[in-house]
Amino acid sequence: MDESAISTEALVKTYGRNRGLTGLDLRVERGEVYGFLGPNGAGKSTTIRLLLDLIRPTSGRISVLGVDPRHAGVALRRRIGYLAGDFVVDGRQTARELLTYLGRLRGGVPTARITELADRLDLDLDRRIRALSKGNRQKVGVVQAFMHAPELLILDEPTSGLDPFLQHEFLALVREARAAGHTVFMSSHVMSEVQQTADRVGIVREGRLVTVERVEELRERAVRRVEVQFADPVRVEEFAALPGVSAATVTGTTLRCRLDGRADALVKAAAAHTVVGLLSEEPDLEELFFGYYADQGEVGRVAA
């Protein structure tokens, strides 16, 4: 039995002449938060629909929580929380009625748990869903995904429509799920939310996983912008040839440069002078992500 939370091998999905996935090999370990990144059309939503057995693969193998989702049916779905980017349900019910109904389908969810989550998200449970704004409908979706404390959360653009405060609360829920030993598989365009929560990120391009990295390792290898202010003028030649340093300039008493990798050589060279101030700007995950695509020469050119 596969012990990982999610595993795919040579997964292919075609739509007529178009290919959604072209041989996806994916492995998500139990208890981790995995960020699944890629621009529109790269294959993220197709992957999620295959994992949930909403669509069927053209070829390849899928394992979710150790079983094939095609044959596991209701028993597997009770162990999963799923949230789409645009949560759409019958609008005639109130949020309370819908969540109570879904809770019963999942084997029973305490009323107190639903109320707790609704309070955290400032959700009025007694309004009819059709009267809710897009952001408030998305709150209902967040509650239904988390309320039964699932072993695996599959989240597709989960904070769509949420304001910044509620995005923060959502990220707290993700961290709590990980602390409880649950697994989170999260597709997102909001790089900051992945950066704050993910243990690893996978970048998908043209329906294929092209790299998997730990967030810490991505940051460690990132090119940073560094600015050092000295008490007295310095010569740019002292710094321009240091390991990892590029684009060095000096204006008066201020050195500006880009730093790739460790800062040891730069710090030691700067220490020969009186340092007044030091600023190191670390790129966020968005810069790293688009930098990777640029290195591949394929920014924006992905499969439909």
TrEMBL record:
Keywords assigned by UniProt, alphabetized: Antibiotic resistance, ATP-binding, Nucleotide-binding, Transport
Q: Where does the record place it?
A: Cell membrane
Q: Which domain of life is it from?
A: Bacteria
Alphabetical list of CDD domains matching this protein:
ABC_DR_subfamily_A
PROSITE patterns registered for this protein in UniProt: ABC_TRANSPORTER_1, ABC_TRANSPORTER_2
List the Gene3D superfamilies hit by this protein, alphabetically: P-loop containing nucleotide triphosphate hydrolases (3.40.50.300)
The segment(s) forming the ABC transporter domain are 6-231
List the Pfam families hit by this protein, alphabetically. Answer: ABC_tran
* Keyword field contains Transport: yes
Q: How does it sit in the membrane?
A: Peripheral membrane protein
Q: Name one GO molecular function term.
A: ATP binding
Where would one find the signal peptide in this protein?
A: none
InterPro entries in the cross-refs: AAA+_ATPase, ABC_transporter-like_ATP-bd, ABC_transporter-like_CS, ABC_transporter_ATP-binding, P-loop_NTPase
The family line of this record is: Belongs to the ABC transporter superfamily.
PANTHER family with a match to the protein in the record: ABC TRANSPORTER ATP-BINDING PROTEIN, ABC TRANSPORTER ATP-BINDING PROTEIN NATA
Protein's recorded name: ABC transporter ATP-binding protein
